[in-house]
Amino acid sequence: xxxAAERIERLHELARAAAAEGDDDRARYYVRxxxxxxxxxxxxLPRQFRRFTCDSCDAYLRPGTNARVRxxxxxxxxxxxxxxxxxxxxxx
Length: 92
What we know:
By secondary structure, the chain is an alpha+beta fold. It contains 3 helices and 3 strands, in the order H-H-H-E-E-E. It has helices spanning 3-21, 24-40, 47-51; strands spanning 67-72, 75-80, 85-89. The chain has a 3-stranded antiparallel β-sheet, with no helix packed on it. The chain is globular and about 40 Å long.
């Protein structure tokens, strides 16, 4: 694992902890920083990181708090408070 990948993992942990404490601005900062590290090093963000962040406002999503999760025909729909939606397929 490269240094950049380790840094992205650490920033994911920090964003999760900040969001759990209710410090949404700090969590958003960590998400933006992780995205920037990934872009500069041409790395893909881990799947769990992509699924728990909003592409529009860079918020760290917590289902039930600032995100709504619904199951529809063969996919999961995650809606952020900003109104952005992300859809992920799943097998029944």
